[in-house]
Design goal:
Elements: H1 6-18, H2 24-49, E1 61-64, E2 75-78, E3 85-86, E4 100-106, H3 116-128, E5 129-140, H4 142-147, H5 153-164, H6 176-184, H7 202-211, E6 216-219, E7 235-241
Parallel strand pairs: 1-2, 1-4, 2-3, 4-5
Antiparallel strand pairs: 5-7, 6-7
Helix pairs in contact: 1-2
The structure holds S-adenosylmethionine.
């Protein structure tokens, strides 16, 4: 039997999503599948250009999962446009061994499954960095959010404003625990946003990158020339040296 094409599956999913009789649970699962199919299609288009999983260029500054936040002189790899290269990093980092000086990501790691993809990413980051090269990683700081519980309502309001101002979930954040749920899971019914799969704090980042072989893992002094300024509040960043 021929392998079914992802295009054919996408059409069937679209038809089911349009049907008023499709149950809510199935809608959620199909939406997630449709998103994965989109990533798969972008990734496979790129692997046709780079069948051995390595691009020919050797950029020395690379951003992973930057979305629309571009950094001057960085090569941007993301699963979806806009980016210099569309690549699903859960499949590895498509760069040559020991070639990168700075590998940057923020608010990306919590969007990949743990342990398989997160630990694979940490090992791949170690592989592509040159000796002495630096991995900078920022994530929502779960320790900060938990340390405020039970929180003053004004802090809840500030977090909602800073993190969810553009989203349609304000009516559903009714208590501080709802906000903790967002930070840990982010699995509401908005098809635009990607769920959070794992929560991190400073200790977990040290453990993850030390296990992957990094020599030192230290707090990173936030630099708005590189990082997205809106991420400074409530995030934890580390710099890991290979
Ligand atoms: C919440 S956005 C953060 C964007 C930007 N770093 C910022 O802080 O504004 C997460 C980004 O990670 C990207 N991403 C998620 N999973 C990915 C994967 N498996 N491979 C590559 N990029 C991924 C998403 O496409 C998205 O651009």
């Amino acid at each position: 039997m021929n392998q079914p094409s992802t295009e054919a599956i996408s059409k069937q999913i679209a038809a089911l999503l349009d049907s008023p009789t499709t149950t809510h649970g199935l809608v959620r699962t199909l939406r997630a599948a449709a998103k994965e199919i989109e990533l798969h299609q972008h990734h496979h288009a790129s692997t046709r250009a780079y069948p051995d999983g390595r691009i020919s260029a050797t950029p020395d500054k690379v951003q992973i999962g930057g979305g629309s936040h571009r950094i001057n002189s960085f090569f941007n790899i993301d699963a979806v446009p806009p980016a210099d290269l569309l690549w699903d990093v859960r499949e590895g980092i498509p760069l040559h061994d020991g070639t990168v000086q700075t590998l940057f990501s923020e608010h990306f790691l919590e969007h990949v499954d743990y342990p398989r993809s997160a630990k694979h990413y940490a090992r791949e980051a170690h592989r592509v960095l040159a000796p002495g090269g630096r991995l900078v990683t920022g994530v929502p700081d779960a320790a900060f959010v938990l340390s405020q519980y039970p929180a003053d309502p004004s802090l809840t309001a500030e977090m909602v404003e800073r993190w969810y101002a553009n989203r349609d979930c304000h009516g559903d954040i009714n208590t501080y625990l709802d906000l903790i749920n967002y930070v840990f899971r982010d699995q509401d019914d908005d098809p635009v946003y990607n769920p959070h799969y794992w929560a991190y704090d400073h200790e977990k980042l040290i453990q993850l990158f030390t296990e992957a072989g990094f020599r030192t893992v230290e707090p990173w002094p936030f630099d708005p020339a590189m990082a997205n300024p809106k991420r400074q509040w409530g995030s934890v960043y580390v710099s890991a040296i290979r």
